[in-house]
């Protein structure tokens, strides 16, 4: 029997549940001409041409045995946050299954200085957080994951479950999952569903949706007072830069396998790979059962096995998405159309001088497990479609510049800077940064190296090149774990420059070594 650790809800359920939570297009919202996808930051410096911000991602783990990477990364950011305006989070806020019971350990305590009342973090409820320093996340796949029924009941009647129980792997699973993203929504979104009467809702809207934008009234994000997000995807402007935050969990479904001889062969290969992964999971549990978490070297080995277990589970989810013959193929057309229209508007706005998009799943990445995932390819194809349409609509307005200055992602547990070459689409010559190494188990670069080739008909074409990769490397006593985050400084006037400053806390031979890598300009 296979042991399934996580369950990924269907896209239609994710969309429907999230709409209910924010009362999407409620009559009282429509009546007030409120744009539920925009926020305005209360900030005296929001019109300054030069500003800085922080980026983290895939941070949502608790303490590893003997060390706490997420807290170490948070401490890296503390000297910078007075000079920065906000923090972007590229997703996977809470591992392993986005559960509310892990917010205290895996988010509130590590980031306590950024929270009102952070001197007493144990008194902060996960659904009552107020940030004194803006933290603006997007949901990751783990923030949507649920726990399969067999695990949530903690059944010890099957062999795989007994092995897991015996294995000493600390998987941050708990007793329940995310509730199809419900915990994330209660933690970060303006959870309008909780208002019982129209009067209460009207009062709340008139109090907090007072900012004015060219698309109507919108949410006013006030650090220290009211720090909710209007929706799972949203936009805001700062210093003449338009930021677009996306929920990539609802447009990452791969197309079904073709009903051809080649499709049948591919299905057999995927089924075989899935079976191999299940065997690897059982081997990991058997190995873990004989390790002593009180022994420092064995504790690190347990950490590594825990990371491998999570990595395999993600690969299995990706395979299951391809093998599922019962699913209805669904793409979040509403969100993608929104992105297209907002990008077009952005290019027609005379005061906008740059654009940044951030979301969880990277379309371009050289981390060992991600490039060939079906979800990676699905995200890339759908983003290309949007950008191609935008390019056609704005025409010569770009004056040969890329449509987007910078794309930020997570999901791959590393820090990476890539540039696309001529892809044949409007995602050419864009800078992509993966910031997903801020706390959870790090991963290595793929053995094929830094150049990404894409199959186009009968030929392979070079479409992207990696210029920086910071991830796990070395073996045995020489193994290095460089956890990371970013400070990004925006400089210049009409054509902004982004100065990328990687901040790294490396766990090596059971000691921390903090360093700032050489900055680079894009």
What this model shows, in words?
With 522 residues, the protein is of the alpha/beta class. Helix content is 30%, strand content 21%. The protein has twelve helices and 18 strands. β2 (51-56), α3 (69-81) and β3 form a beta-alpha-beta unit. α11 packs parallel to α12 (374-394). The model is unreliable at 151-157 (pLDDT under 50).
Strand content: 15-25%
CATH class placement = Alpha Beta
Overall domain count: 1
User: What structural class results from the helix and strand content?
Assistant: alpha/beta
CATH H-tier superfamily: Metallo-dependent phosphatases
Question: How do the helices and strands line up, and which of them pair or pack?
Answer:
Elements: H1 11-21, H2 27-31, E1 34-41, E2 51-56, H3 69-81, E3 87-89, H4 103-108, E4 135-137, H5 149-152, H6 159-166, H7 182-188, H8 198-208, E5 211-213, E6 216-221, E7 234-238, E8 241-245, H9 261-288, H10 296-323, H11 333-348, E9 354-358, H12 374-394, E10 406-409, E11 415-420, E12 431-435, E13 451-456, E14 459-470, E15 480-491, E16 497-508, E17 511-516, E18 520-521
Parallel strand pairs: 1-6, 2-3, 3-4, 8-9, 9-10, 10-12
Antiparallel strand pairs: 2-15, 5-6, 7-8, 11-12, 11-14, 13-14, 15-16, 16-17, 16-18
Helix pairs in contact: 6-9, 9-10, 11-12
């Amino acid at each position: 029997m296979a042991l399934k650790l996580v369950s990924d809800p269907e896209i239609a359920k994710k969309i429907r549940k999230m709409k209910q939570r924010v009362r999407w297009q409620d009559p009282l919202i429509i009546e007030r001409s409120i744009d539920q996808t925009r926020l305005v930051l209360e900030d005296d410096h929001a019109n300054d041409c030069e500003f800085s911000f922080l980026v983290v991602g895939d941070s949502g783990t608790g303490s590893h045995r003997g060390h706490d990477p997420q807290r170490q990364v948070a401490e890296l950011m503390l000297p910078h946050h007075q000079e920065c305006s906000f923090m972007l989070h590229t997703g996977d806020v809470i591992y392993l299954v986005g559960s509310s019971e892990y917010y205290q350990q895996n988010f509130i305590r590590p980031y306590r200085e950024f929270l009102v009342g952070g001197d007493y973090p144990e008194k902060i409820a996960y659904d009552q957080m107020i940030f004194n320093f803006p933290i603006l996340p997007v949901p990751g796949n783990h923030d949507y994951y649920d726990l399969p029924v067999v695990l949530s009941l903690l059944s010890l009647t099957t062999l795989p479950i007994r092995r897991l129980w015996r294995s000493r792997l600390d998987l941050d699973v708990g007793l329940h999952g995310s509730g199809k993203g419900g915990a994330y929504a209660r933690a970060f979104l303006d959870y309008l569903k909780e208002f019982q009467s129209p009067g209460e809702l009207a009062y709340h809207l008139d109090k907090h949706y007072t900012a004015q934008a060219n698309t109507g009234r919108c949410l006013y994000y006030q650090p220290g007072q009211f720090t909710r997000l209007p929706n799972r995807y949203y936009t805001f402007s700062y210093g003449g830069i338009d930021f677009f935050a996306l929920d990539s969990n609802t447009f990452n479904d791969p197309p079904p396998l073709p009903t051809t001889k080649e499709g049948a062969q591919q299905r057999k290969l995927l089924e075989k790979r899935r079976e191999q992964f299940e065997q690897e999971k059982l081997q990991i549990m058997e190995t873990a059962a004989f390790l002593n978490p009180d022994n420092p070297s064995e504790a690190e080995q347990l950490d590594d096995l825990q990371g491998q277990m999570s990595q395999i589970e993600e690969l299995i989810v990706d395979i299951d998405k391809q093998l599922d013959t019962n699913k209805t193929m669904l793409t979040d057309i509403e969100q993608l159309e929104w992105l297209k229209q907002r990008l077009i508007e952005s290019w027609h706005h005379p005061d906008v001088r740059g654009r940044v998009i951030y979301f969880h799943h990277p379309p371009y990445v050289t981390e060992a497990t991600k490039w060939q995932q079906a979800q990676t390819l699905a995200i890339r194809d759908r983003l290309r479609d949007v950008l191609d349409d935008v390019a056609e609509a704005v025409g010569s307005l770009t004056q040969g510049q890329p449509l987007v200055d910078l794309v930020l992602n997570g999901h791959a547990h590393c820090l990476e800077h890539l540039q696309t070459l001529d892809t044949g689409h409007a995602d050419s010559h864009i800078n992509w940064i993966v910031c997903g190494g801020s706390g959870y188990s790090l991963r290595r670069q793929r053995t094929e190296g830094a150049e990404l080739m894409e199959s186009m008909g009968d030929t392979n074409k070079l479409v992207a090149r990696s210029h920086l990769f910071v991830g796990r490397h070395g073996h045995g006593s020489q193994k290095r774990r460089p956890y990371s985050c970013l400070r990004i400084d925006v400089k210049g006037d009409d054509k902004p420059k982004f100065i990328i400053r990687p901040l790294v806390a490396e766990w090596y031979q059971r000691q921390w070594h903090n360093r700032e890598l050489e900055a680079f300009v894009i």
